[in-house]
Design brief:
By secondary structure, the protein is an all-beta fold. It is built from no helices and 11 strands. The strands form 2 sheets. Strands 2, 4, 5, 6, 9, 10 and 11 form a 7-stranded mixed beta sheet that branches. Strands 1-3-8-7 form a 4-stranded antiparallel beta sheet, with no helix packed on it.
């Protein structure tokens, strides 16, 4: 089970950190990712980390602004979002995916478990 939290309304230029707490297996068993879905748009990959925590991948739109980290002791993954813009407004989902290649997963079809989402609204 994945439970996201931290979403709220903020202003452009603000920072925000989202959390995703996993229960069950350790997050180090999974590739973990954050996706988002804006109103009227498809769900898109934002950022991901591989099972060993040694590799990350980012959507071009968030490079240099968003980072992903994890705390294996807390079985929690974080999404740090800086310099937010109105285009970042969306529901953000945490996901976990198994893979045998210690890879970052960027395709939502490769993820096995999803959280319920947390809403982020950025006003300009």
């Amino acid at each position: 089970q994945l439970v996201e939290s931290g979403g709220r309304a903020v202003r452009a230029g603000d920072s925000l950190e989202l959390s995703c707490v996993a229960s069950g297996r350790p997050i180090s068993d999974y590739a973990m990712g954050w996706f988002r879905q804006a109103p009227g748009k498809v769900r898109e990959f934002v950022i991901g980390i591989n099972p060993s925590g040694t590799s990350r991948d980012y959507a071009d739109s968030v490079k240099g602004r968003f980072t992903i980290s994890r705390d294996t002791a807390k079985n929690t993954v974080y999404l740090q979002m800086n310099d937010l813009v109105s285009e970042d407004t969306a529901v953000y989902f945490c996901a976990a995916g198994t893979n045998n290649w210690n890879a970052v997963l960027t395709n939502n079809r490769h993820y096995d478990y999803w959280g319920q989402g947390t809403r982020v609204t950025v006003s300009s």
